[in-house]
């Protein structure tokens, strides 16, 4: 079963081809291509939805052609066309959904709308060392921060989530305050390498709340307060403040993940989403989990942020598991807001 996957929920256009192999076998990635709009949005300090939609339209078919060529396949070989149905920017989602359904109708092939977060969640299955169910998942992206119990494809239970900002948002907003541009997560973490993480005392919100929820909105306020207090000294202390910010975010993520492991008794953790690329998070989680003989799985670094491969993979795994059937309903809709547990079985 050859699946074409299209991602266009935000500021990355991603297209990929995945081969489903049936049964429990992990589907294989044949090729994927990505165009990031980061450079285009940078001047505005964030994603401009209208520009994002227009750029997806320009990119999606050339990327599809590139992926087919790389995989040595023709469009007519595609069995199912999958696309990100939500959550995300409505106009951006409509581009991927519209193109996918048009391709499906033209080829007389069924289509499948995929949940973007299920794509992130299952992205570690694209790695050379894929996880096995069940596991605890820490989903840390630009728009979401959740701990989940995952018993199989489509079997998702949310254990805790952020009550305000996402972890990626905490990175991005703090980075913006420090003048590190957009998206600031990777830049802040690079600068933090040269700083002293103990230099500033920053809050660890909800660390001792006794549940698995997160809160990061207060952290950016604390960073702003520190930055203001430093005044002219800020430039010289920026790396220290970046390191302290990163340490605060990572400590909360690690401690809550360990609490989720204790609560569920699981021996496996999966980290997914853009913040899963963070080096300190990987180091600290690996060390804490090794001490407990718990295995941790990550997506490959270049597949932590948005991409088409995870969408094609999620579609393949849903089809193989019988969770969902592709359909010829080309009267598509998108779901800009769509909680992940809404698709749980
Ligand atoms: P969502 O998936 O919730 O809709 P999104 O698609 O925008 O949101 P992702 O693409 O998964 O999110 O991840 C982007 C986020 O990851 C950004 O906030 C970015 O700053 C953050 N990020 C990427 N790399 C790193 C890193 N090395 N350290 C910290 N944060 C990072
Ligand atoms: Mg993005
Ligand atoms: Fe994402």
TrEMBL record:
The Gcp-like domain, residue ranges: 29-312
What does the note under cofactor report? Binds 1 Fe(2+) ion per subunit.
Q: Name the coenzymes or cofactors required.
A: Fe(2+)
GO MF terms listed in the record are: iron ion binding; peptidase activity; tRNA N(6)-L-threonylcarbamoyladenine synthase activity
User: Any keyword Iron?
Assistant: yes
Q: Which family does it belong to?
A: Belongs to the KAE1 / TsaD family.
Protein name listed in UniProt: tRNA N6-adenosine threonylcarbamoyltransferase
Organism, scientific name:
Alicycliphilus denitrificans (strain DSM 14773 / CIP 107495 / K601)
């Amino acid at each position: 079963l050859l699946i074409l996957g299209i991602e266009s929920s935000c500021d990355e256009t991603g297209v990929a081809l995945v081969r489903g192999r049936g049964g429990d076998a992990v589907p294989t990635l044949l090729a994927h291509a990505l165009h990031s709009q980061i450079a285009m949005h940078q001047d505005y300090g964030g994603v401009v939805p209208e520009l994002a939609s227009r750029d997806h339209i320009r990119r999606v078919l050339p990327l599809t052609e590139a992926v087919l060529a790389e995989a040595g396949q023709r469009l007519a070989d595609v069995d199912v066309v999958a696309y990100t149905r939500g959550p995300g920017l409505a106009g951006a989602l409509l581009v991927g959904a519209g193109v996918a359904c048009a391709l499906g109708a033209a080829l007389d092939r069924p289509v499948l709308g995929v949940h973007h977060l299920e794509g992130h969640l299952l992205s570690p299955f694209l790695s050379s060392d894929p996880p096995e169910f069940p596991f605890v998942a820490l989903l840390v992206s630009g728009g979401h921060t959740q701990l989940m119990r995952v018993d199989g494809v489509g079997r998702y239970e949310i254990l805790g989530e952020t009550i305000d900002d996402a972890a990626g948002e905490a990175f991005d907003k703090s980075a913006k305050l420090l003048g590190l541009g957009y998206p600031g997560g990777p830049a802040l973490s690079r600068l933090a390498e040269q700083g002293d993480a103990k230099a500033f005392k920053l809050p660890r919100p909800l660390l001792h709340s006794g549940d698995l929820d997160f809160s990061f909105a207060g952290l950016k306020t604390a960073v702003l307060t520190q930055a203001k207090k430093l005044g002219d000294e800020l430039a010289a202390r920026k790396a220290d403040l970046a390191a302290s910010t990163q340490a605060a975010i990572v400590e909360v993520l690690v401690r809550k993940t360990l609490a989720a492991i204790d609560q569920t008794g699981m021996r496996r953790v999966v980290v997914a989403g853009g913040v899963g690329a963070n080096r300190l998070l990987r180091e600290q989680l690996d060390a804490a989990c090794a001490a407990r003989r718990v295995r941790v799985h990550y997506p490959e670094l270049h597949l932590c942020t948005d991409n088409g491969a995870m969408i094609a993979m999620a579609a393949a795994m849903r089809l193989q598991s019988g969770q969902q059937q592709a359909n010829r309903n080309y009267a598509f809709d998108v779901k800009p807001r769509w909680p992940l547990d809404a698709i749980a079985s």
